[in-house]
């Protein structure tokens, strides 16, 4: 069974627009019987959870080996770095469109996939985990792309605000702090994506 793109856009607009509790009245009947879509949600909930776990493992390494653990203590240094949170405002606007939201998620995954090169250089002894994380990030993006095509949603090339995935750092300490914030931002990004999938799966 296929899901009308307009119905999906409206449903996801209700779910992804903050706050999350604005779920009442969502037109869920179009999705409730779509087994392929529900299978996509369940599989990628698990996949996103795995990616979040791998990011958390790298965060623990940064904390244990570099003693960079608390974000609030590093805010002053962050101001000197060109490390930005990948935007997801297209998933929260009242004028939500599924194409732009999903495309923005995919654009963000691409940025984080590339920025993990910074982490690999910072933690060479954990290069295998970083490479696995890069592969999983690429696969999650591919899964979303395939689902968009299956639902008949247009693929939109969404700009990534010219964010440089390979920032340069003036010192090794700045490199360390930059890596810390890349992982912290990636974790928040994944939490948003996971929350959206979970609410859809629980309808």
TrEMBL record:
Keyword Iron found: no
Subcellular location: Secreted
Family matches, as Pfam families: GCSF
InterPro entries: 4_helix_cytokine-like_core, GCSF/MGF, IL-6/GCSF/MGF, IL6/GCSF/MGF_CS
Single GO term (MF): granulocyte colony-stimulating factor receptor binding
Principal place of residence: secreted
Biological-process GO terms, alphabetical: immune response; positive regulation of myeloid cell differentiation
Gene Ontology CC: extracellular region
Alphabetized UniProt keyword annotations: Disulfide bond, Glycoprotein, Growth factor, Secreted, Signal
UniProt keyword Glycoprotein, yes or no: yes
Superkingdom in the source lineage: Eukaryota
Signal sequence extent: 1-25
UniProt xrefs under PANTHER family: GRANULOCYTE COLONY-STIMULATING FACTOR
Family classification: Belongs to the IL-6 superfamily.
Name of this chain's protein: MGF factor
